[in-house]
Write a structure and sequence with these properties.
Largest sheet: none
Helix content: over 70%
Number of helices: 5
Order of helices and strands: HHHHH
Low-confidence stretches: none
Radius of gyration: 17 Å
């Protein structure tokens, strides 16, 4: 089970790398002038590759190995219920990132760089809470 736990953590780190970086790309993408078509297209490629090449596989494998751990260790403790609620919130955040990426793809972005800077901070809060729940198991 330690191998499964290690893989769960590795892919969680991979997923979070994407969850931190994609909104940062959105910050810069929203600042690029519409007249700079080459720059706009470059951001679209970077966002797509990050989302489909790193974030989504990382998220899927995090969940797969998390479920495997659940089957191995059982489902006990309020901390685990809270952690699973955070995972559901992260999945919703991931899906919303996809929606924002599609908006950028079709040049329909409705937010400025300041909004994306705040949006970029959300996974940090979830990460801190999730690590505390998994390590401290406060309830």
């Amino acid at each position: 089970m330690l191998w499964i736990k290690s893989l769960h953590i590795i892919f969680m780190v991979t997923w979070f790398a994407g969850l931190f970086y994609l909104p940062r790309l959105f910050v810069y993408h929203s600042m690029v002038s519409a007249t700079d078509r080459e720059g706009v297209e470059r951001f679209k490629v970077m966002e797509r590759k990050l989302f489909f090449g790193i974030m989504t596989p990382g998220g899927i494998l995090t969940i797969v190995f998390g479920l495997w751990l659940w089957l191995g260790y059982g489902f006990a403790g309020g901390w685990l219920h809270a952690k699973l609620a955070l995972v559901l919130i992260l999945i919703a955040y991931h899906i919303y990132c996809a929606k924002l990426m599609i908006d950028f793809k079709y040049d329909r972005n409705r937010h400025d760089h300041v909004w994306y800077r705040w949006f970029n901070e959300f996974p940090t809060v979830i990460l801190i809470a999730g690590v505390i729940l998994a390590v401290v198991k406060p309830f």
